[in-house]
Amino acid sequence: MITKIEHVGFMAKDTVSLSDWYVKNLGFEKIYSSSSEPPIVFIKKGDGMIVELFPWEKDFSGPKSDDKKVAHLCLYSTDLDRDLEYLKKNEVEISGEIKKMFGGSRAVFFRDEEGNWLHLVERKEIPWE
User: Fold this and answer.
1) Are 44 and 50 in contact (CB under 8 A)?
2) CA angle centred on 91, ends 96 and 102, rounded to 5°
3) How far is CA 69 from CA 9, 53, 96, in A?
4) pLDDT digits over 104-126, tens only?
C-alpha cells in the first residue's frame, strides 16, 4: 500500500556542496550519504519531506532531466509488488524492471499522464533512521 510521499529527488553537479548549502542556508540536516563516489545524499528539514541529491553526470537509478529541475517524486510503498500490479491494471506504463537499490530497497519508475516521473520505493531498512 502506498502510504506517503517519501522524498523528492534533485540532480546535483556536486551533491556534497549542494547538501552543505542546504544545511548552511536553510537549516536542513544531512541524514544519509551513500558510499558511492560521488555520494547520493539525503537531507531533511525538521519532520518534513526528505530531499535526495543525486549526481547529475551519473545515470543513477532513474530518469534524467535536461533542465535540471525536480527529477522525480518518490512515493513510499509497503508492498511494491502489489502496488505495481495495481498500476499495471490501471494501464500505467512502467519504465523498466524493478531496480534493486542500497540497503535492500527496491524501486520502479513510471510517469503520470503529463510525463512527470514518479518513483515508487519499498525499503527493507531505512538507512537514515
Assistant:
1) yes
2) 30
3) 9, 11, 22
4) 899 999 887 657 687 889 988 77
As given in the structure block, the three cell numbers for residue 35 are 558510499
User: CA of 50: how far to CAs of 19, 69, 89, in Å?
Assistant: 12, 16, 30
pLDDT in tens, 58-116: 444 455 555 555 567 788 889 999 999 988 988 888 988 898 987 889 999 988 765 76
Give this prediction's pTM. Answer: 0.58
Q: Which cell numbers hold the place of 61?
A: 537509478
**How far apart are alpha carbons 47 and 124 in whole angstroms?**
21
Instruction: Using the predicted structure, report yes or no on whether residue 34 has a pLDDT greater than 70.
Output: yes
Residues in the chain: 129
**What amino acid is encoded at 69 in this protein?**
K
DSSP string computed for 102-116: GGG-EEEEEE-TTS-
* C-alpha closest to that of 2 among 112, 87, 73, 78: 78
* Spatial distance between the Cα atoms of 99 and 55, rounded to a whole number of angstroms: 18
